[in-house]
Amino acid sequence: MLSNRLSSITPSVTIGISSKVNELKNLGRDIINLSIGEPDFNIPEKAKSVGIDSLNKNETKYNLVSGIKILREEICKKLSNENNCIYSIDEIVVSNGAKHAITNALLAVTNPGDEVLLPKPYWVSYSEMTKIVNAVPVPIETEKSNDFKLTGELLEKYITNKTKLLILTNPSNPTGAVYKKDELIDIANVCLRNNIYILADEIYEKICYTDNFVSVASLSNEIKDITITINGFAKSAAMTGVRLGYSASNKKIAKGINAIQGHLVSHPSLISQYIGYGALTQCGDDINNMVRTYKHRRDLITSKLDTIPNIEYVYPEGAFYVFIDLSKIKDKFDYKESFSIEFCEKFLEEYNVAIVPGLAFGIDNYVRISYACKEDYFLEALDRLNVFVSNIMQSNTINNY
To answer: What is the spatial distance between Cα 164 and Cα 117, in angstroms, rounded to a whole number?
Structure first.
């Protein structure tokens, strides 16, 4: 018999979409894929060179579980200089991507039955990771009027004697919303009063279009002590396939994460770590250029969305997504179970555009599109979305006569 936990895990919607896209492409269909959260840039050349050099020097043997020393030292410098967070290298654990870092953290601090709070909309894997470690995901219903951001007052309503951890994503996937300092203080103080850990997923931190990004762990020493900061290189340095992330936490938590990782995977690939080291030490200009490109695309895509009737969206201040509200169309669209899933399926089948249904993030009235692609692609996709929405509205009007 297989493990009971498998029955509770929902297959990834985004992976399902990718499979469908590949299937259609194999049939000769020209698909515009706006579903994937992957930079369309390549790893900067200087970072790759550091990785290649490590191979030439035969840096290919077992190393420290928590990551090579020079990389953790650079991560500490980065956190100090850019995030105003002071950590020692024994508080840093480098992992096989941010997903791995999150799972390590959940294994280290939760017990079976503990509740993990997830403000909606939330990234698709948070709830499934929580289930895998036998904890209980508890969605928090946030408000569109506040760009779906959590508040301390709202958080209080969801806390029980089983609450162990809050996962807070900043900037947000899927909305692109960015928390201000006072908003984070409000939330973190509630967690302090109630002895709740904060898992601060800051993987999109570099892709922030405001000048006031604030790390949770920078708010105070007390807040830092209950915070596990998650970050990585997939989004900022286009290292999605290379798989490199890290956690920063207090020594006790880091020691637990290190022990877990040591038994599960030993340590991340050394060449990945050297490439990450190169990205931190030599590729600041490359990363800044990527971010400027994303900001330009954000401005283009939101301007285009403003011209499409009957839709609204959350204005993104970070990441490379737009979360689009289709509430005005929902009642006009003929669907059986899930509006967003069936809307996206029809859009893909009839208009050759792949986007992600909002149900994957816990909200069925929305869809998410990525602008980590060529401008021509997402502008053409929005033209097709405009036609699709117009046809839905027009068809409904005709049917009412």
So the answer is: 8
Residue 360: its pLDDT value, please?
94
Q: What is the pLDDT of residues 190-244, one digit of tens each?
A: 999 999 999 999 999 999 999 889 999 999 999 999 999 999 999 999 999 999 9
Give me the domains of the chain, ranges plus CATH numbers: 4-42+285-399 (3.90.1150.10), 45-282 (3.40.640.10)
Strand partners, 165: 116, 197
Token pair in block for residue 264: 């599960």
Q: How far apart are CA 244 and CA 16, in angstroms?
A: 24
Q: Are 94 and 273 in contact (CB under 8 A)?
A: yes
For the whole model, what pTM was predicted?
Answer: 0.95
Residue pair 108/260 in contact by the 8 Å Cβ criterion: yes
- Map tokens 């709202």 to a residue: 154
Q: Which two tokens stand for residue 317?
A: 């201040």
Short-list 203, 129, 130, 189, CA closest to 164: 130
For residue 368, the 8-state DSSP code is E
| Structure token pair of residue 215 | 């790390």
DSSP state, residue 361: G
Query: DSSP labels for 180-231?
Result: -HHHHHHHHHHHHHTT-EEEEE-TTTTSB-SS----GGGS-HHHHHTEEEEE
d(CA 271, CA 247): 19
Classify residue 81 by burial, with Cβ atoms within 10 Å: 0-12, 13-18, 19+. Answer: exposed
